[in-house]
Predict the structure.
Amino acid sequence: MTLFLQYAASGVATGCAFALVATGFVAIYRVTRVVNFAQGVFAVLAGMLAFSLLGWGVPHILAEFVAVVVAGVSGAAVGWVALGRRDTTPLASLIITLGLGIGSYAALILIWGDQPISFDGLKGNLLVGGVGMQAQYVMVICMTGVAFAALGWFFNRTYIGRGLTACSSNPRAARLVGIDVHAMGLVAFGLGGALGGLAGVLLTPLQPVAFNSDVGIAINGFAAAIFGGLLRPGAALIGALVLGVAEALVAGYGQASLQSGAALLIMLGIMVWRASRASVLTAEEDNA
Amino acid sequence: MLEVRDLVVRYGAATALDSVSLRIERGEMVALIGPNGAGKTTLLNTVCGLLAPASGSFQLDGRIVQVPEGRQLFGDMTVEDNLRLGAWRVRDRDPARVFGVFPRLSELRRRVAGTLSGGEQQMVAVGRALMADPDLLAVDELSLGLAPMVVDDLADHLLRLNQERGMAVLLVEQNARLALQLCPRAYVLEAGRIALSGASSELARSPAVQVAYLGGATDEAAT
Amino acid sequence: MKRIPGGWATLAVAVILLLPLVLPEALLTIFIFIGLATIVVSGLSLLMGFAGQVSLGQAGFYAIGAYAAALLARDFGVSPLIGLAVAPVATALIACIVGLPLLRLRGHYLAFGTLAFHLITLSILGEAKDITGGDTGLAGIPPFGIGPVVVAGPFKSIIFGYLAWILALLTLLFNRNLVRSRPGRALRALAASEAGALASGVSVGRYKLQVFVLSAAYAGLAGGVYAFYVSYIAPGSFPLVESIEFLIMATVGGLGSVWGAVVGATLVSLLVQLLQALGTFPGMPLRAPAIFSYAVYGLILVGVMLVLPSGIVPALRLVFGKRDRS
């Protein structure tokens, strides 16, 4: 039983990190209808930057904070390029984010080389409900909780958060009311960048990151985000946790090599089941 | 307070507005009627700054806020959120002043906008526009898809807003009867041009308007 | 939809048919891969441009075609020609089975579904060690040939050059006729709006599946040729980035444009090759090839999408179109 709980615990931790990445996808997609294929890069960038800052003697917390802020700024920069000009379609924006992600590999290799990097997180074990868990796992889960609470406050209690939701709800009306939809898109990208960055600084102590680690992170985040139709962060959180735990269980009890395949199959199954219950019209509205 | 001079607006190769001129004084209620596709919404979007004219100009002395065709609410947000978002450009975000005009909205404040009836949604749309304290309220197709009783009620509200607050109203309508009854002065826009203009009472009596917009008989003896 | 003036097309075909005789071996290999990519991308372009369905997993079907051809020829004693012919059929069959549930998904859901399909395929190929050789791959694929005539030795690349490109040109021709036919019009209606197409009486589900299966068959055919050319395949030969590359080729060339597949495949492949060659120049630091490739690849992608969002061929068509009118 304890083995199961240990697997579940590590799964919940990685799931939380995926949830942060997923929420980044959701934030960006809701406001701009763009799927940001560079979402994983923010995590890698923040992880590597934190590693360097810590190496220069910057204390913990500050180093991670700076890394997340830098990730947020790069997010806004990606958004600025990806949102492009008037005639840039969402598909073109998607390809642009892809291009920016690939281009970022060059910068990452140039600065940090092509080998995996990690740094030390919280050491030791904590007892949670009678189960020994790595302290870093607890950190990940707590920070994710804090992040979600902050996001909830931001979107539901602040005016600008409502403005972002308005852009997602009806961009035309948002423009009429005076909201600068383009600027809101940049804010959404910045938010996505920061969320990805947070996931990165939390994950890197657990799994070393290299310049191309963004793919695995992005795929998991995307899978979880799809769970909520790229629109609902709550569902994305659930999807991320399911995905993380499923992968951990498959890796623990079965074979590590099967974990991603099995997890993907589960997610696919759920999506197809849900899709067969929806009608054409609602799906088209979702994708409009 | 709104003066439009020889406005020309194009969509690619097509000319949507061809040298349109009109004016609206402070506190006036003016109607803009015409068939579907005449360019009424284009004119509105241009004076609201959403479209750039190819030539000509307009001068706006005050704030114009549009109540768009089809309501265009934030469907998955509450009535209260919709109203508060209407105040994006101004300081005062308190919806109390709109609840004063539309008490019904106060009852509906927590309802999700998309679940309301057509008439209630139209009320929210007007209320949202009012939140920005407009000097000129431009209402695009108020009556579309609404029952006559509901439309009359909304029209009454507009009239009162005009009389009590001196708010100018530009009523853009396919429903000419309603528009001409409500507004003392009117313009007729056809295929991007002002075809007729003048006092509503006179326009309502003109045979051209009667035949085209009021369902009158072509027989002159009927007038 | 305007056509590229007939003169250009004939010239292009003539050049393509001459190149295998003229190119040196190294370039000929690239030429072959471009041809194979064209086959895959023409199917993808059809799927995305006309049926409006995004696929991030075409390389999965490419892999299936390769393995099907290789296994049939090596382990089942089937003649390579038959193996090559069966590859697209087997791939189409699998696409049909997978497509039925998968195509219930739409838009980004479907995009993810196809991505997942590629990954799951790689997983299965890696796990089924007894059949596929697992991660170490499948070696000893018999050389391609018809009866006693075996394609090996100094002329192998030339023959494969012709094989790949004749197949590519045939797929382009087939696509062009498909697009102009009645099913083609139905496809375009699908791309515009599913609800609209449904209302017009188009049996949406059936068409979507048919195009999906067709594009998979193209990829499977190309995969079969690939297997016989390289004689060794493994799951690692078909990484996820290859699906992304096909997507980029399709988008850069121009979705739904028949010749766009050629332009996209050629440009992207040449760019990648050029950068790798540049980076291995003497005096370049060890990681230079990778850095170069990624940087310029990314820049080109971003640049093309910002300046020519519909892709290159449609933009060229606009230029030709203006000339036609004057």
Summary: Residues 1-62+135-216 of chain B form a domain with the Rossmann fold fold (CATH 3.40.50.300). Chain B has two domains: 1-62+135-216, 72-134.
